[in-house]
Structure formats: structure tokens, C-alpha cells
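Lecture 7 notes: from sequence to structure.

We start with a single chain of 162 residues. Read the sequence below before looking at the structure.
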Amino acid sequence: MSKKIIVSLSIFVFLLAGCGREELKPKDVVGSKEVSTASDEITKIEFEYYITLISGKYLSTDIYERNSERYNKVVVEALLDVESAKQELNEKFKSGTPGLSDLLNLAGATETALNKLLDGEYATRSEYANKAGQIMGDISRTYLDGELPSIVKTYTGVENTK
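Now the structure, written as C-alpha cells:
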């Protein structure tokens, strides 16, 4: 329970820090109208970037001893990366952009898996890892010609999804 409180507080602080800055983002004000620069296309490089951001630290959790201080820190950092990716995706791309819902689904599956790890539910780890892996494989086949980002190749040993 205390782990969930720590994660919740960490995410809350992260979101507050992001909301407190007054800098121009991809939207700019022209006269009295707001012009959105949200894209309606996700490039191959962006797919690889977001897959890596969403799953990179999650994939690395296996190298740490469960419930160790470092393990818990990596899980919390992974949750923050997932939250950051979701926020960026929703700001950067228009609703209905091909691949957007797939990346958000990957983020949701990864977030669920990480929360289960934080709760100490290790018995279901492979179930949640398989779900995230299926989504990642679908993204890879649909948008990346079967290629996977290098971090996925490193941690899983899988070269491609063809």
C-alpha cells in the first residue's frame, strides 16, 4: 500500500512540475486564435521512441532483485516514463492518428503490469508481459515493417516480429 502512495505522490509531483511552467508548447497563439500544430502522422522514428520510452525501464526490471530499493526505484521511474509518454502522445498527435491508440494501449498495458509489480504480484508478471508484448508486436508489424527498437531486442532477444 505504501508503494502505491509513493508512486501516486511521485506522479502527482511530476504532473505539477509539468503544469507549472509557462513555456510555449506545440501550440502557439496567433492573434486571438490558437493554432494547433498537433500532427496526424506518427513517423517510424517516433514509434520507436515511444515504444522505448514506454517499455524500456519495464523490460529492465528483471535484472534487479525483487523488492530491492533499486528495483522499486526502477519500477517507479518506469511508471513516470509511461505517464510522460501518454501525456506527450495526447499533446503531440491528433485524435484518430494512425497508431496513436496502439501506443496508448501499449502504455496502458505496461502501466498495469508495473502497478502489479509494485503491489508484489509477481505470479502474473508473464501474463501482463505477454499482453504488452502482443501489443508491441502488432505495432511493430503494422508500422515498423516487423522491426523492434534496439532496447527491446537487447532485453528480449527477439530481433523482429516478421
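The chain has one domain: 2-156. Keep this in mind for problem set 3.
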